[in-house]
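Project outcomes to date are best conveyed with an example. Our students and postdoctoral researchers have been running inverse folding experiments weekly, and each run begins with a structure described purely in tokens. The record below, which covers 341 residues, was selected by the lab manager from last quarter's runs and is presented without edits.
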């Protein structure tokens, strides 16, 4: 990319312009989806600003409460959740909201209802705030089935039914990665303009990568296929080079790197967490949606991740996602294990 040339570009593709261009391809569109996305973008800008001055504003530290997952809430978690709930309700385009921080789903009052459900993790990786590691917001959007009487069934849909998914990473730069079902595009916030500018058009994950990303501290509790795959990454028997281990511990940052450079991100089930640790609706589904749209795969150890049908809003699942060929290797190991039984 010609950064010197970019400094003088005047024809910038902002995220608003990009989404409006997409909207123009659908003559029947009334702009509801565009309005909803603009409110999500506003929420991301607000949280980015808060993250950048968290230390100064004394937002770092615990709010003194515990969320539904039993994790201690950071002050910034609580603030981010409020920001997104208010932004989404005020858009007038949502009926149901599911947040990692709230035990129950939020049903929007009928006067402000729209035709979309939004599932989101307002501040993923927040345990890393104190040490300055990249954190982020993850979101997914569904269309409701019951226009006049929204129910939990409207969000307990398989991930393949999502209309759009994305994440916003707050790190050395603020990057928003989005898919509306027609590929994946990345936008970077220009602080001087206050606008997200298209910087990573049509992201495609490499077919095979050189990096694997997993918490090896859990290795003693892994199942056979996961242990075999990681062993294969470190000690390949076909003469190829070993894969490099890169693990940040913030899902947004780890998946972002995997998306751009290739490889595989693993959060398997283990003896301590037989159902996995990551939440299906607002972590597994949006990231799996993005991976598939970028040409990769997402697998649970039993099936395609986007085919899962959740039964609870905070349900968990194992996940293996990343480059197509790397996930194929994992699928083959699980198939071989199944054949033994």
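After processing, the design step wrote out the following sequence:
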């Amino acid at each position: 990319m010609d950064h010197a040339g970019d400094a003088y570009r005047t024809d910038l593709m902002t995220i608003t312009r990009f989404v409006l261009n997409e909207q123009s391809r659908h003559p029947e569109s009334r702009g509801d989806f565009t309005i909803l996305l603009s409110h999500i973008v506003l929420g991301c800008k607000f949280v980015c600003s808060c993250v950048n001055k968290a230390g100064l504003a004394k937002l770092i530290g615990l709010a003194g409460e515990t969320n539904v997952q039993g994790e201690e809430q950071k002050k910034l978690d609580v603030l981010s959740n409020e920001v997104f709930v208010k932004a989404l309700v005020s858009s007038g385009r949502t009926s149901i909201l599911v947040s990692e921080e709230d035990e129950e789903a939020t049903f929007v009052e009928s006067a402000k209802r729209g035709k979309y459900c939004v599932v989101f993790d307002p501040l993923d990786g927040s345990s890393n705030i104190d040490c300055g590691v990249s954190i982020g917001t993850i979101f997914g959007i569904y269309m409701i089935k019951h226009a006049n009487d929204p129910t939990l069934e409207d969000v307990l849909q398989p991930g393949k039914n999502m209309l759009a998914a994305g994440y916003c990473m707050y790190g050395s730069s603020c990057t928003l990665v989005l898919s509306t079902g027609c590929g994946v595009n990345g936008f970077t916030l220009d602080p001087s303009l206050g606008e997200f500018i298209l910087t990573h058009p049509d992201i495609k994950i490499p077919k095979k990568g050189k990096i694997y990303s997993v918490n090896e501290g859990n290795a003693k509790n892994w199942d056979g296929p996961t242990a075999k795959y990681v062993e294969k990454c470190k000690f390949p028997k076909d003469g190829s080079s070993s894969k490099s281990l890169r693990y940040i511990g913030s899902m947004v940052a780890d998946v972002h790197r995997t998306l751009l450079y290739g490889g595989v991100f693993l959060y398997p089930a283990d003896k301590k967490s037989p159902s996995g640790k990551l939440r299906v609706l607002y972590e597994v589904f949006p990231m799996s949606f993005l991976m598939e749209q970028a040409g990769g795969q997402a697998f649970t150890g039993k099936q395609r991740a986007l085919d899962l049908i959740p039964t609870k809003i905070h349900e968990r699942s194992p996940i293996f996602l990343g480059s197509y060929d790397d996930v194929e290797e994992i699928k083959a190991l699980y198939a071989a294990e199944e054949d033994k039984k």
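The CA atoms of residues 131 and 186 lie 25 Å apart. The mean pLDDT is 91. The training component of this project remains on track.
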